[in-house]
Amino acid sequence: MTRRADRIAETLRASFPPAEVAVVDDSHRHAGHAGAAPGGETHYSVRVVSPAFAGMNRVARSRAVHEALAAEFKGGLHALALTLRTPEEA
After folding, report:
1. How far apart, in Å, are the Cα atoms of 20 and each of 42, 70, 71?
2. Predicted model pTM
3. How do residues 14-38 score in pLDDT, each as one tens digit?
């Protein structure tokens, strides 16, 4: 994992405990697209399974993750492909 991927995973584990988190850097798939940067670390697929998502709809879950990662977005993170589930949904 890259440094940013490690930070993303750490932040999400801390924000949605207890969480199962998987982060994959997909930046190479977006070379030449908007937001892509040389060296990558801009586009990620993220899967989080946490009871913290109970009672939240898909949009609320996405907003919560984006809020938790606000510092990463300010630092060059461009896009996330999110899979967000409760343990019962996983």
Report:
1. 22, 20, 21
2. 0.85
3. 999 999 999 999 886 656 666 555 5
Residues with Cβ within 8 Å of residue 15, at least 6 apart in sequence: 52, 64, 65, 68
Q: Which two tokens stand for residue 72?
A: 């990463």
Q: What is the largest CA-CA distance in the chain?
A: 39
CA atoms within 13 A on the CB side of 23: 25
Burial of residue 53 (number of CB atoms within 10 Å: 0-12, 13-18, 19+):
buried
59, 51, 43, 45: which is closest to 85 by C-alpha? 51
Closest CA to 77 of 43, 26, 31, 45: 43
Q: Is 50:19 a contact under the CB 8 Å cutoff?
A: yes
Q: Are 5 and 22 in contact (CB under 8 A)?
A: no
